[in-house]
Known about the structure:
- The chain is an alpha/beta fold and 342 residues long.
- The protein has helices at residues 5-11, 113-123, 144-155, 170-175, 193-201, 209-212, 250-256, 258-264, 281-287, 293-336, and strands at residues 19-27, 30-35, 40-45, 57-62, 67-72, 78-83, 90-96, 100-106, 130-136, 159-161, 182-187, 226-230, 235-239.
- The strands form 3 sheets. Strands 10-9-8-11-13-12 form a 6-stranded mixed β-sheet, with helices on both faces.
- The longest helix has 44 residues, at 293-336.
- The radius of gyration is 24 Å and the shape is globular.
- The model is unreliable at 84-90, 211-222 and 332-339 (pLDDT under 50).
- The structure holds guanosine-5'-triphosphate and zinc ion.
- InterPro entries: G_CP_dom, P-loop_NTPase, Ribosome_biogen_GTPase_RsgA, RsgA_GTPase_dom.
- Monomer. Associates with 30S ribosomal subunit, binds 16S rRNA.
Amino acid sequence: MExxxxxxxxxxxxxxxxxxxxxxxNSAGMYKVIHLNGAEINAIPKNRTEQFLVGDWVALEPxxxxxxxxxxxxxxxxxxxxxxxxxxxxxxxxxxxxDQLFICISMNKNxxxxxxxxxxxxxxxDDEYQTSLVLTKSDLNPESAEIAAQLADEFDIAVFATxxxxxxxxxxxxxxxxxxxxxxxxxxxxVGKSTLVNAVAQKEVMATSHISGxxxxxxxxxxxxxxxLIEQGDFVLIDTxxxxxxxxxxxxxxxxxxxxxxxxxxxxxRNCKHIDEPGCAVKAAVKNGTLERKSYDQFLQLQEESxxxxxxxxxxxxxxxxxxxxxxxxxxxxxxYRKPPM
Length: 342
Ligand SMILES: Nc1nc2c(ncn2[C@@H]2O[C@H](COP(=O)(O)OP(=O)(O)OP(=O)(O)O)[C@@H](O)[C@H]2O)c(=O)[nH]1
Ligand SMILES: [Zn+2]
């Protein structure tokens, strides 16, 4: 089983003399690396301030019982996520050097194809990795196959309708992974991602809900990404539990709709939302046919989602800040406490 080195060599030059490995775990700056022979060992960056992503290829300098990480080799892809850490929204990278991302959506009764568009805007990077869609729990919807075909057509990507109950689609999904590739699965909690990954890997690599239940026993409770070699499938899996909140930021909007940004410069109001404001140049352009109605509708939909993402992140930040303030108050009252004179 290789670590994905051949795939990596197709993208980047590699010095064959270097002792190579891949970052397999990053837990608050404590790293583990996997060697080409599959051994996993603790690793410390030579340059203490340098940060690495799970999936990074690195040149190593083996020591007695750990490795020094000498150098990071170039990344050909990064899997990003939006987080609300600190005071503002920022994009964080969760993994690197992946070849395929499987976005998992459950076919339960809450299925909404609208969500797919949002996920694709957030994650699709055609020049870095391939993105495919997985409709999980297809046994719950008799129309799964038709829906899969429609979505494949609409978004021009591979779509797999899978069920871990009937095993439908699992073989096809596994076959789509080229040996040596590094893959990652994204999915909201409960979509059946762990069950699916185990079925594809033919191995219990992830703890599933029905086994762990409410006790959380044996469940991966860490919030750090992990790199796992899947021998049976001859591929590398990067599990990124960190990608939980997916959203569309304002900068994504501008990138996806540059023509609207251009038009908006002529709107009467600087903060025009192009919905029903007077003097809106964007609406005028739809009316006179310079802007396609379809783009405009898509823009509005995404703008709405971007606002709710922002709202969600703002709410999280507010909560954090109020907790911080509470802690401060507590610290203050502690500080004010004076030891009574003896
Ligand atoms: N009907 C049906 N249920 C499934 C299928 N796959 C998983 N489930 C059930 O869905 C629930 C969630 O499955 P998990 O695999 O743990 O889901 P997950 O997405 O990994 O969720 P987290 O562990 O919270 O991230 C469990 O009760 C599974 O038994 C499927 O193909 N069909
Ligand atoms: Zn406007």
